[in-house]
Specification:
Elements: E1 4-10, H1 16-25, E2 30-33, H2 43-46, H3 51-54, E3 61-66, H4 72-75, E4 81-84, E5 90-92, E6 101-110, H5 140-146, E7 147-149, E8 165-168, E9 176-179, E10 182-183, H6 194-202, E11 214-217, E12 220-228, E13 238-246, E14 264-276, H7 279-289, E15 292-293, H8 295-300, E16 307-308, E17 321-327, H9 348-355, E18 370-374, E19 386-391, E20 414-421, E21 430-432, E22 443-445, H10 452-473, E23 483-486, H11 496-503, E24 537-539, H12 547-557
Parallel strand pairs: 1-2, 1-14, 2-11, 7-8, 14-24, 15-16
Antiparallel strand pairs: 3-6, 4-5, 4-6, 8-10, 9-18, 12-13, 13-14, 17-20, 17-23, 18-19, 19-20, 21-22
Bound molecules: flavin-adenine dinucleotide (FAD).
Length: 566
């Protein structure tokens, strides 16, 4: 049958893309199904500094709206709460026009070949060993296989120089101020999960025939995992394939979605395994729609229960984020050419990037150039847990850009510190179905800071803001003194904790299909990423772990116990 493969992988982000490519390189026939399409050499993907254009691009963005609190009174005070206006547009703020419907906090995602690694900021921090407590392997070896290290001389032990992921300029776990490591080439071109897929698809033998048995189907949104529940081993359901809708924009998070365009229902089958890599929101959504999840929830939507797995969609967590915004006494001016950060043909920065002149110019630089790594007083396992960076753009969260909702222009004396709380303590987040229609979006609530664990995260964030204040307050004239605009306008003492609580944002969600031990009732996966209670089904993506760890998971899942994998 020509719709049968050894493996089917669903989703081509850091979890699914490298995994499908590596399985095919190992001689397995693989069907890679991706809901979005391939944007080929889109400049907004390739220039990391243009990431904000990519994550707002209607051809690849998936608009998720989430809640951060159970108490909607807190949500209503978030300055970036997004509403759908009666004319179908967006309003962002706390004073919506009459008739507007509350959507939630905007949470960018990518529905495109390469997933969110095509629009993210490319920061490539080496994960802490403690991230791997549940996986029985030494994961550092997968990091080493993954990287093409530009930071140390070739041949340096403990580093690799032929992995597919270009990492510059450093990787380790120190506390201090560093140049941020970024997954891009030394010429400033983004490297992402799309690269290994395209490399394997394009590889040919000397006679010109296709080298590896990888089939990519874009615009193929998987709606259901198919199981064999009959026969000798019927007590353990075996995943045998998937059902999908072939067509453009089949998921309602896609801004181009049109409910009246139905798509074509198709099926494909796997001889060995179905691997789900739809990302932190779509993997648990797909499991639930397929009958794997909390029994009561599935039954309330008339979904036949294949395995009662209460952990699917729970344990959701995220790096909580906030920022310190100030104005310096002097304006900041660029020492280099004036970049447009858009698509005009005569942008001097684009010419420099294309030709490599002057080290490629500003567009060849990392989007997040400086990494301030701190350890708060409540850091888990005594490991660094705050990642901050300074910028001349204000630190603020995300919202969908449209004619009506544009960020305010930042004055030229803007100085900010954005802050990400790593190794979060809070794990109360949930993803629940809203219907049994696979095209409908789930309901997501991170429930930040709602228990004692979450309060520790809040405390760490306060310390991050205080650190930022200490730095700006130590800057002498003529650049200082700095005037704080938030959390505490005019440097007048205020309740920083309350500000963070109400104005939080985030965009690194994980763990909605968590790996866990046999005795953990909320464990969804075992340490080999197999979905508990099933056969032939694994989840390999950010729903188990964050992005760089996800690239590493992808290698472990493909059995890459060999040298460089480019
Ligand atoms: C704006 C932004 C900036 C970020 N910056 C950084 C950063 O600097 N550093 C960092 O480490 N992390 C960053 N991240 C997070 C990081 O990009 C993600 O954690 C990572 O991409 C997750 O990989 P994934 O494979 O789990 O899922 P994704 O990257 O979300 O990929 C999932 C893929 O599956 C496809 N898909 C989903 N459902 C289906 C389905 N049913 N059928 C078919 N296909 C499907 C989607 O279209 C998508 O292509 C950022 C994220 C965002 C949104």
């Amino acid at each position: 049958q020509n719709n049968t493969y050894d493996y089917i992988t669903v989703g081509s982000g850091p979890g699914g893309g490298p995994l499908a490519a590596n399985l095919a390189k190992a001689g397995q026939s693989v069907l890679l199904l991706e809901a979005g399409d391939d944007r080929w050499t889109a400049l907004d993907q390739e220039i990391i500094g243009w990431a904000f254009l990519a994550f707002n691009h209607p051809a690849q963005r998936w608009d998720y709206f989430v809640k951060y609190h159970s108490d909607n009174e807190l949500t209503l005070q978030n300055e970036h709460l997004t509403w759908r206006t009666t004319d179908g547009g967006f309003y962002v703020g706390t004073d919506p026009p009459s008739g507007a419907k509350e959507l939630g906090m905007y949470y960018p995602r990518a529905g495109t070949l390469g997933g969110c690694s095509t629009h993210n900021a490319g920061v490539a921090l080496r994960p802490s060993d403690s991230d791997w407590n549940e996986t029985a392997a030494n994961m550092l070896k997968y990091f080493i296989q993954l990287e093409n290290d530009h930071t140390v001389p070739k041949g340096t032990p403990g580093h690799s120089f032929d992995g597919f992921l270009d990492i510059s300029p450093y990787r380790d776990q120190r506390v201090g101020i560093f140049e941020a490591p970024t997954h891009m080439t030394t010429a400033g071109h983004r490297v992402d999960a799309r690269n290994p897929v395209i490399a394997v698809l394009n590889a040919t033998n000397s006679d010109g025939s296709k080298k590896y048995p990888l089939t990519l189907r874009t615009e193929s949104y998987v709606t259901k995992i198919l199981f064999n529940t009959t026969g000798v081993n019927s007590e353990t359901p075996q995943a045998i394939g998937v059902e999908f809708l072939a067509g453009k924009s089949m998921f309602s998070a896609d801004p181009r979605f049109n409910a009246s365009v139905k798509g074509t229902k198709m099926q494909a089958f796997a001889r060995k395994e179905v691997i789900i890599s739809g990302g932190v929101f779509n993997s648990p959504l797909l499991l639930k729609l397929s009958g794997i999840g909390p029994k009561d929830e599935l039954e309330s939507f008339n979904i036949s229960v294949i395995v009662d797995l209460p952990g699917v969609g729970s344990n959701l967590q995220d790096n909580t984020e906030s920022g310190l915004n100030t104005k310096a006494a002097l304006n900041f001016t660029s020492l280099g050419p004036s970049c447009t950060f858009a698509f005009p043909p005569d942008d001097p920065c684009l010419t420099a990037w294309e030709t490599g002149v002057g080290d490629g110019g500003p567009y060849a630089q990392a989007a997040v150039p400086d990494a301030i790594m701190l350890k708060s007083s409540v850091a888990a396992l005594n490991e660094r847990d705050i990642f901050m960076w300074g910028s001349t753009n204000a630190a603020r969260g995300f919202w969908p850009l449209s004619a009506e909702s544009q960020p305010p222009a930042d004055p030229p004396n803007t100085w900010s510190y954005s802050m990400v709380k790593m190794h979060v303590h809070g794990k109360l987040g949930t993803l629940n179905l809203t219907s049994n229609n696979p095209q409908d979006m789930p309901e997501i609530n991170f429930k930040f800071y709602e228990d004692a664990n979450g309060q520790l995260d809040l405390q760490a964030m306060v310390e991050g803001i205080e650190f930022g204040r200490k730095v700006v307050n130590s800057v002498p004239t003529p650049i200082g003194p700095f005037n704080e605009t938030s959390p505490c306008p005019g440097n007048v003492p205020c309740d920083t904790k309350d500000y963070i609580l109400k104005q939080t944002w985030s965009h690194h969600a994980t763990s909605s299909c968590a790996i866990g031990a046999d005795n953990d009732p909320l464990a969804v996966l075992d340490s080999e990423f197999r979905v508990r209670g099933t056969k032939g089904l694994r989840v390999v993506d950010g729903s188990a772990f964050p992005v760089l760890p996800t690239f590493m998971l992808s290698l472990k899942a493909a059995g890459c116990d060999f040298g460089g994998s480019r």
